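Hi U.,

Before I forget, here's the chain from the pilot set. I'm dumping it here mostly so it's searchable later in email.
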Amino acid sequence: MNALVTPPLALYVHLPWCVRKCPYCDFNSHVHKGELPEAEYVAALLEDLERDLLLVAGRQVQSVFFGGGTPSLFAAESVAALLDGVRARVSLAPDVEITLEANPGTIEHGRFAGYRDAGVNRISLGAQSFGARQLQLLGRIHAASDTGRAVGELVAADLGNFNLDLMYALPEQGLDGALTDIDAALAFAPPHLSHYQLTLEPGTVYYSRPPVLPDEDLAEAIQEAGHARLAAAGYRRYEVSAWAQPGAECRHNLNYWRYGDYLGIGAGAHGKLTDALRGQIMRTEKPKQPRTYLAAAAAPGIIGSRADVALSSRPFEFMLNALRLTEGFARVEFEACTGLSLDSQQAALEIAQRRGLLAQTATGWAPTELGTRFLNDLQGLFLPAVLAP
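Structure:
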């Protein structure tokens, strides 16, 4: 056993409502008709945070992320009230990164300026595609022109640190259409670009009624050509689906991928917290349904559930995150974050290396190009039961 080291701490805030559920979406999002209960929900979020404070006593929050759902449905005043309440309860780093996800179709004129004044300093904009037909098939509520308008609004509001979400291998999409999407995104010069393949997740409309998608060969050709286009434009792939200009990597997501800690507040939010003194890592989960969550916040006691992570599960949890990074991980990071010696994973590491999925570095291990391509297979080698007798 090695001693656990307390990692950096982030805060995730889940705002669960959206205008319409997209057929591919498996996130905890709920369609809400009528006026959102913003004041009630902000009060519940702060109560949620209050009840978790003992878990992070004395620690500083390095990043805050508003995810959803569609966080940009919330008025800037609600975001400001929430961030004011957060600052009153926890210490935020002087250079804290505060990201808010936004849908181009829900941005009213002047709203980005309000978010900036509230303290938001990074925006993640869900463009997904610039093709009218693809946006329709994806169930998006915005048009390509809305993305351009939203980018103009956020740049005018001095929120130049932004991400564009872009999907590929979409229904009825060919190679030319996918590259046109990338060129359209690059025209806005986003510091960060998420480029990920559409997948059919259980529980979604598309999973039960699959659309016709590009076959495996075409999807691979789209990926390779898209990656070449992004690299030529000066972006670096630092995570399996994330590209950034130098210095523009998402610090909040990097904390996840490096197996850092995070408080999760809001309906369905998850958290991961390290107690180095006890030698324990805890997982937290809040009630998924907004009504249930609001009722829990109004009643006494812990909101949601808490459970310690078994020692046997820590290596897989670590690898599930760290192997998404192109840089991989260092031995010292694994041992500090899991409290285990990396030697305990020697058999899995050797199998991964023999299969060409992992390569040894000066300080640890990194996925090869093949390992990144077959990431699920690589990560699966570290499941507790895989190498058991």
